[in-house]
Write a structure and sequence with these properties.
Elements lengths: L1 H16 L3 H7 L1 H28 L2 E2 L10 E2 L3 H7 L2 H32 L6 H13 L2 H11 L6 H8 L16 H25 L4 H9 L4 H29 L3 H6 L11 H11 L3 H35 L1
Antiparallel strand pairs: 1-2
Helix pairs in contact: 3-14, 4-14, 5-9, 5-11, 6-9, 9-11, 10-11, 11-14, 13-14
Length: about 325
């Protein structure tokens, strides 16, 4: 009987020891007052637009009507998106754009980081030169590459014709087959310096003692990289890859300025298609539904990014 009655008493004692969250909030009320203006700004600038986009995705807004005269249609916008032929083509373009841009930017950045990690004459100058594509404005870079790819006056076409490799300048961004690869080349050129900088920072954490020990044991360059260098780069590589993926999935400036989604939707990706629906065709409801789906995808990528960061923190703490 004593054991039975002592168990609820122990549970009450345990519950009494649990901190009351409201008491903690009240005890720290001065701290919350300091951050209240920032929280209010975030609610106005971030939370309300997200809520309004979710709400607008359930309405139809024909161009003939005002936005205030929207018509409730429930999930029809989402159904039309999932059954549309255009959205699947745009989705395939987005996947190709994101995967190819992320992969090649990461690989090129890794190669440059490994090359610049060695000490040689002029390394500082070469680093500065390779960072230039990243610091150039995306708008300026887009117009420069649009001129380079120009079918009549482009630099690449003039060089190919001058070398006798072709009779006429190739059509890069006005061709259904070559437009998306051409845009990916521009995007990789602009983003690989970011991967290079991140991975160069990661290379600083590789212990030189391990590399020297591996060299003494007869390990070759590839074996030293795979068994010594790459394990120390795993954390920063994951973070860099996810950041590139999120940036590319939500990239807008280069494809929109260079092609505007053309020709025939061959270079449309999700974000440019959303922009055209909203501001070109004034189909605000459909654009909002697209935006909600894009938001969920980016939140998923953000979840893996936060997990990668927390995993790196746990490894650093254990070390």
């Amino acid at each position: 009987m004593t054991a039975v009655t002592s168990q609820p008493h122990a549970s009450r004692q345990k519950a009494s020891k649990r901190p009351n969250i409201w008491r903690q909030v009240w005890a720290s009320r001065a701290d919350y007052l300091y951050v209240a203006p920032a929280i209010l700004v975030m609610l106005i600038v971030i939370a309300y637009p997200i809520y309004y986009t979710f709400d607008l995705s359930f309405f139809k807004t024909p161009p003939s009507l005002q936005l205030k005269d929207k018509i409730f249609v429930g999930l029809d916008n989402y159904k039309s998106i999932l059954t549309s032929d255009v959205v699947w083509r745009v989705s395939i373009n987005t996947i190709i754009w994101t995967v190819a841009s992320t992969f090649f930017a990461f690989v090129l950045g890794l190669g440059c980081a490994l090359a610049l990690h060695r000490d040689f004459f002029g390394r500082g100058v070469l680093r500065a030169i390779l960072i230039i594509p990243w610091v150039i404005s995306a708008v300026a870079a887009s117009y420069i590459w649009k001129w380079i790819f120009h079918s009549d006056f482009g630099v690449i076409g003039a060089i190919l014709v001058g070398l006798g490799l072709t009779d006429r300048p190739p059509n890069f961004i006005d061709n259904l087959t070559t437009v998306l690869p051409s845009l990916i080349v521009v995007n990789v050129w602009r983003e690989f310096p970011f991967a290079m900088i991140m991975l160069m920072a990661g290379l600083q954490t590789v212990p030189e003692q391990l590399l020297r020990a591996a060299t003494i044991d007869g390990a070759g360059a590839w074996q030293r990289f795979w068994h010594v260098t790459f394990p120390h780069l795993r954390g920063v590589s994951t973070v860099t890859f996810l950041l590139l993926a999120v940036s590319n999935f939500n990239s807008f400036i280069i494809p929109w300025i260079m092609t505007g989604g053309g020709p025939s939707n061959a270079s449309h990706i999700w974000i440019t298609h959303i922009y055209e629906l909203a501001f070109g065709r004034q189909r605000w409801g459909s654009a909002a539904a697209y935006s909600v789906l894009l938001f969920l995808i980016l939140m998923t990528l953000g979840y893996f990014y936060v997990r990668a960061l927390s995993g790196n923190d746990r490894r650093d703490g254990a070390a």
